[in-house]
Amino acid sequence: MKARDIAQQIIYKIIDPLVRGMVKIGITPNFITATGLVLNVVACIIFICGAMRGKIFFGHTYGHEGDLSFVGWGGFVILFAGLFDMMDGQVARVGKMSSRYGALFDSVLDRYSELIVLFGICYYLILQGYFFSSLFAFIALIGSMMVSYVRARAEGLGIECKGGFMQRPERVVTIAVGCILCGLFGYFFPYYRVAVPHKESIPLFEPILIMVVPIAFVAVFSNITAINRLRHCKRVLQEQDRKEKAGE
Q1: What is the pLDDT along the chain (248 residues), one digit of tens a residue?
Q2: Backbone angles phi, psi at 98, to 5 degrees
Q3: How many alpha carbons fall within 13 Å on the CB side of residue 143?
Q4: Cβ distance 54 to 65 under 8 Å?
Q5: Whole-angstrom Cα distance, residue 112 to residue 169?
Q6: Which of 89, 88, 79, 143 is CA-nearest to residue 111?
């Protein structure tokens, strides 16, 4: 069993009493899925509010630039919303409320959640002057969408395509933990910077990198996952075509 599966089973055991309580009081999987989306919208709003720190709007300056507390809180909300993404499936199974529409509803809202969160992070990085770093968030957004799209398109062709290293749980945890650690570091060491000797304008390290590096990691490996899924589908489809031609 993979480490991912072991961790998933542990979390399922922890949240099982809560899941059964939800089933008992009549909470539906779709309601939980929608709640997860709302929480991700809240996370996006937190990043947008954080992006305005130190910026002048209509003649007023909001807070001070470089305040990473919003990043930390945004990461916490993303991680909390991820629990709802796990609970909706469990509620559906335990409460025997699984349906094909529920699966579709879950997939669509998950995509909206990722788009909204990564938009908030892009917005934050751009307004805080980290345009180059914001490109990693944009590439992560592309990779996240393509991982899901390749799977959906493959399943439409009758191919099971669930493999890959950077699936949604890994993406959520990586980005959320990076944001939380960035916020904590910024809180305890708000002015810590390392620059090139004698060239203070060229930074070697600043706290924002604690968020950007995990996002870059997701950007790279989510796209690799999408490409590997595409290669898997290519092999399966070519084998099917070969068998069909041989049968003729």
Answers
A1: 566 667 777 877 888 888 888 888 888 889 999 999 999 999 999 999 998 875 544 344 444 555 789 999 999 999 999 988 888 888 888 888 888 898 889 989 999 999 999 999 999 999 988 899 999 999 999 999 999 999 888 888 888 887 777 888 889 999 999 999 999 998 888 777 787 776 666 667 888 999 999 999 999 999 999 999 999 899 988 888 888 887 66
A2: -65, 140
A3: 27
A4: yes
A5: 15
A6: 143
**CB-side neighbour CA atoms (13 Å) of 78:** 32
CA distance 205 to 194: 5
| Under 8 Å between Cβ of 60 and 123 | no
Strand partners, 199: 196
At position 65, the amino acid (one-letter code) is: E
CA dihedral 168, 172, 173, 175 (to 10 degrees): 130
Q: Round to whole Å and give the CA distance between 160 and 230.
A: 12
